[in-house]
Amino acid sequence: MRVTTPGAVPPDAAELRPRLAETSPCLRRLDQRKWTAFRVVEAFGARVGLRSDSAALLARAVARCQAAGARVLGAAPGTTMGGGRDVLVQRLLSLSTGAADAGAGARPALALYDGASRVHLTRDRDALLDEFDAALRVALADTSPTHLFVHAGVVGFGDSAIVLPGASLAGKTTLVRALLALGATYLSDDVAVVDGEGRVHPYATPLAVRADADSPQVPHDASSLGATVGRAPLPVGLVAFTHYRAGATWGPREIGSVGAAALSLLPHTAAVRHDPKRTFTLLGRLLDGALVLSGARGEADACGRALLRALEERRRQRRAASSGARTPAFPLAVDLRLAGSVAAT
Amino acid sequence: MNPIPNAPVHPVARTESLVVTEVGGDTLVYDLLTHRAHSLDAEAARVWRLCDGTRDVAALAAALGATSGATSGGTAEAVTREDVVRFALRQLEEVGLARDVPPPAQAATRLSRRELLGRLAQAGVATLAIPTVLSVVAPTTLYALSSCANRPCYYDSDCCPGSRCVGAGPTPGARLGHCK
């Protein structure tokens, strides 16, 4: 996928006006507001329209899209529909500054709409844009005809990816940061985008770093943390389900069954209700040949080191298997115990 | 009409409103009615596919032996294979993938996985695996991808289940808090 350089918008992109194929009375009412800035972005085969009553606010939203790997559409041949400048989109996100609604002296409330539904109301622009990130992710996940979205942190290590599925507050970002410090490349903090071959693509939005569990998340560019951002899709070598437990040592169990591993991923997987067949197929391809581990972890650094060792060991086994050499069974537990990362049982 | 006591029961696999995909030797089944996903290992999937409404448990056990390539064992092995079939049927019925499943052979003996393993060991049957059916509820896209933590909120109801809205107030709607 071609990635537009952040800030670089095709000169005629503003000419395109996004519209949904179907409308409703509520959407028509929303359409009548004074929208002054429009963009159409495309990523992973999905097309999302953006509009705002503030060009500056829309520019910041577009920058967020570009960080996620989306490109801004220009009015190139084939992108216009119905002979006009309207472009059909699968989702339409509207950012309102609320200036038109605010009474005299009242501070306007910013709002985010997904289609005709208001999904967020705030007085803080950064909070609105954070919510826009989430709405964009959901829009792409819902409408991408080619890619599958899994709630997970992802790093690259060598020629394969490590996928860390988990809900919020499971410690994904902490573990991603630990792996980056150990030399991994950054692919995503929050979502694994899986293509038809089961490879994971970069979705390199800023890491949402939280000082502690009670603090709000603060975005950090991976490069500002000294990490390299991956640019190419990678096959998955390791999937690790972890959750932080103070004082725990990383003593994972291996999930050997592809079906069980797929079911473990499912609670973190978008669009399964829309297209279960494709979801199952792509999860199967993602898991094909991957080592899948699950367990509680203590400090992220020790767990990160153990994960990298486990991935190296899996690679060594696969190389040996492909060269026809006989190899012993996967000695994960032995290796980790030698490294002092597994509690004696 | 009440069923005839002790009459043979012929389990039937449900096939409608299901999406079935094979991955890595397991069978993934998506139930379009309940939005639950199931993973059937090879043994459970074999039993499920054999439930065509024409076979009772004994016939299913015999067919299972034939499809798994086992040689005809003794009586003990046949009885144990029936236990395996009953165990699989019970799981399939619980997740809504089979109906007309017979009750356990003896009311008090709903075999656990461990007990079944013990029986297999006693009978010296090494070729039979314990059927496994796993299930989860499929999430909506929003639920799967949402980051609940730190979401701005006025009320607890603005947050995901299990999270609370902190820092809002002092009167409702006056100041935004965040989900924790």
Helix and strand arrangement:
The complex is a heterodimer of chains A (345) and B (180).
Chain A: E1 17-20, H1 25-31, E2 37-43, E3 46-52, H2 55-67, E4 71-72, E5 86-89, E6 91-96, E7 110-114, E8 117-122, H3 125-143, E9 148-157, E10 160-165, H4 172-181, E11 185-188, E12 191-194, E13 200-201, E14 207-210, E15 217-220, E16 236-244, E17 253-254, H5 258-265, H6 276-287, E18 291-297, H7 300-322, H8 332-338
Parallel strand pairs in A: 1-5, 3-6, 10-16, 16-18
Antiparallel strand pairs in A: 2-3, 2-4, 6-7, 7-8, 9-10, 9-11, 9-12, 12-13, 14-15, 17-18
Chain B: E1 12-13, E2 18-23, E3 26-31, E4 36-40, H1 42-50, H2 57-67, H3 75-94, E5 98-99, H4 113-123, E6 133-137, H5 141-145, E7 152-153, E8 165-166, E9 177-179
Antiparallel strand pairs in B: 1-5, 2-3, 3-4, 4-6, 7-9, 8-9
Helix pairs in contact in B: 1-3, 2-3, 3-4
Short description:
The complex is a heterodimer of chains A (345) and B (180). Chain A contains eight helices and 18 strands. Chain A is α+β, with helices and mostly antiparallel strands and 345 residues long.
Report on the architecture of this protein.
- The complex is a heterodimer of chains A (345) and B (180).
- Chain A is an alpha+beta fold.
- Chain A is built from eight helices and 18 strands.
- Chain A has helices spanning 25-31, 55-67, 125-143, 172-181, 258-265, 276-287, 300-322, 332-338, and strands at 17-20, 37-43, 46-52, 71-72, 86-89, 91-96, 110-114, 117-122, 148-157, 160-165, 185-188, 191-194, 200-201, 207-210, 217-220, 236-244, 253-254, 291-297.
- In chain A, strands 9, 10, 11, 12, 13, 16, 17 and 18 form an eight-stranded mixed β-sheet that branches. In chain A, strands 4-2-3-6-7-8 form a six-stranded mixed β-sheet, with helices on one face.
- In chain A, helix 2 (55-67) crosses helix 3 (125-143), helix 4 (172-181) crosses helix 7 (300-322) and helix 5 (258-265) crosses helix 6 (276-287).
- The radius of gyration of chain A is 22 Å and the shape is globular.
- Chain A starts with 16 loop residues before the first strand and ends in a 7-residue tail after the last helix.
- Residues 1-7, 76-84 and 327-345 of chain A have low confidence and may be disordered.
- Chain B is α+β, with helices and mostly antiparallel strands.
- In chain B, the strands form three sheets. Chain B has a four-stranded antiparallel β-sheet. In chain B, strands 7-9-8 form a three-stranded antiparallel β-sheet, with no helix packed on it.
- In chain B, strand 3 (26-31) and strand 4 form a beta hairpin.
- In chain B, helix 1 packs across helix 3, helix 2 (57-67) packs across helix 3 (75-94) and helix 3 runs antiparallel to helix 4 (113-123).
- Chain B is elongated and about 75 Å long.
- The termini of chain B are far apart.
- The model of chain B has no long low-confidence stretch (mean pLDDT 78).
- The interface between A and B is large, with 49 and 38 residues.
